[in-house]
Design goal:
With about 325 residues, this protein is an alpha/beta fold. The protein is about 30% helix and about 15% strand.
Amino acid sequence: MGTPASSLVMATMPETSDDAIAPGLREALPAIPNFDTLTLATLDSFRTALKGGPIDLEGDKDVAVEMIVAVGRDGHTVPCILHRPRVLVGRVPIILNIHGGGFVVGDAAREAPAMSELATATGCAILSVDYRLAPETPFPGALDDCTAALHWLIDNADALRIDRNRIAIRGVSAGGGLAAALMLRCLPTLDVSPRLLMLIYPMLDYRATPPDRVGQHVWTRRANQFGWQAYLGDSTEHVLPEASPGLAQDLTGFPPTFLAVGDIDLFLEENLNFASLLARSQVGLEMHVYPGGYHGFNLVPGAAISEAFARDCKAAIVLALSQEAPSPMPQD
C-alpha cells in the first residue's frame, strides 16, 4: 500500500498532528494512495496502480523465483510465487506469505521483491499466495486459496526440500486477517504445528469502531467498510470467526505470535484486543506498537521506524525457524 500511485485521487482527510506521525513518514504521504476514495467505481484504478510488475524469474544470485500452482487436498488450485535459496544445505524453513490489500486489491507479484529480500535475510523459502479478491470472490474464497497453499507446501515438503516442522505463517493487513483465519480453520486437523504466526497490522474485526485519532491516513474507516462489505457481502447476521477472526473467543493452540501495528493505524484497537485474547489463551506473544506509525508505515524506505520494524521481524523469524526440529527417538 506504500507504492506511489499518482493516478489515484487523493482525498482530504482530517490532519493528524505532526507530533503524532513518526519522523520520515509525513514526507511520504503525498506519494501513498489514499484508500478513502476506494469504491466499486474506483476499484479497477486502484488495482491497476497497485498491481505488481513482471516477475524476475532469474531472481538474484542468492534466491531463485518460480511461478507455481499449488494443488490443495480437495483438488483446489491457486497460483503462488515460490522464493527459494539457490544453495540448499539440508531442508530449509518456509514462510507462507499472504499479501494485504483490504481483500480487494494487491497480488503476490507486488510483494515479490520484498519476499526475495526476506528470503535472503533469513535463509527461508517463501511461498506467496495469489488468492482471489473480493467482491468477485467473497468469503470464503481467499481463505480456501490460503488453505490449499498451506496443505500443498506441507504435502510437498520432500520435493521442495523444506522442513515441514519449521513453518511460519506471515500475513499483512487483510493478509494478516487471513493468516489468523487460516489458523482457526486448519489447526485442529494439521499434523504439523507452525512455529510462528506473524501478523502485521492485521485486519481482524468487521465490527470495529476505532477512535478518531487513528485511521486518518492510507487505510481509512471508509476504505475499511468497503473492504469488509466486499468480502462478507451485504449481510453480517451470521459472520463466522473464520471470516472475521476478531470474533473468536478462544485462541488456545495458536502458534507463538508476532503482532505489529503503528499507534495511529486504524487497526490499533482491534489488534490490541486480539493480542489480549492471545495472552488469555496462553499463546506466546511478541507485540510491537510503533509510535507514529500509520497503516503501511513499514513500506516507507529509509524511515527509522521502518528499519526498526524490519529488524524486529527478521529477529522473530530467525529465532522461531533457525533450529531444526529434533529427530524422532528410535523405536524399539
